[in-house]
Design a protein that fits this description.
Elements lengths: L7 H9 L3 H23 L2 H20 L9 H20 L13 H5 L6 H19 L3 H12 L4 H8 L3 H21 L6
Helix pairs in contact: 1-2, 2-3, 2-4, 3-4, 4-8, 7-9, 8-9
Length: 193
């Protein structure tokens, strides 16, 4: 059976029937989004890798016990697990997530436009850094929605489910985050080019 052509639900069924290649395909299909969402919260490669491994151990355990019932929504389910593990980590360590690059990884490197010249690339990089700094200054609930929406590319419905609030609350938090960012831009006279 050609696992590349199977959807997530079929891959899970194949894996539970003993096809290890099916799980490998499921992992390779979603690992980048899951790892990136973890990394954006913890800002540390080795910690993100540890949490990422814990997420997949939990996924395998849940699948093997027959407790998976999120038909067709594997990625959202996996992102919820990774989010919860990040939240647990921050509760244990009392650290808050920040949106900032490290020397070796920057989410915007993945999203760069190859058509930019050197000057445009520098301006874009500086703009992204300014925005990340502003996002870091938001209240935790607003920062969380911005990270999940713009960096993990989740819908407001998914964000609401993940953070266990209503869609209106998630939308409201995003609205207030944007209002606060605009205020900070005006107050600090930040130039976003």
């Amino acid at each position: 059976m050609e696992v590349l052509k199977l959807n997530d639900q079929q891959l899970i069924a194949e894996y539970l029937n003993g096809n290890e290649k099916a799980f490998e395909e499921l992992l390779s299909r979603h690992k980048d989004k899951i790892y990136t969402s973890i990394y954006l919260f913890v800002k540390d490669h080795s910690l993100a890798e540890d949490i990422f491994q814990e997420v997949f151990i939990k996924i395998i355990d849940t699948l093997r016990k027959g407790k998976y019932n999120h038909e067709g929504k594997f990625l959202q389910w996996a992102l919820r697990i990774s989010y919860n593990m990040c939240v647990d980590y921050f509760r244990r360590t009392r650290r808050r997530p920040k949106v900032s690059p490290t020397e070796t990884f920057d989410i915007f490197d993945v999203l760069q436009n190859p058509d930019l010249n050197a000057e445009q690339s520098i301006i874009k990089s500086q703009t992204h850094q300014k925005i990340r700094n502003l996002v870091d200054m938001l209240p935790p609930e607003q920062r969380e929605v911005v990270i999940l929406r713009h960096y993990a590319d989740m819908s407001f419905k998914e964000i609401a489910q993940l953070t266990r609030v209503s869609i209106n609350t998630a939308l409201g938090r995003m609205r207030y985050a944007l209002i606060n960012i605009r205020k900070m831009v005006e107050e600090k006279e930040v130039v976003l080019q």
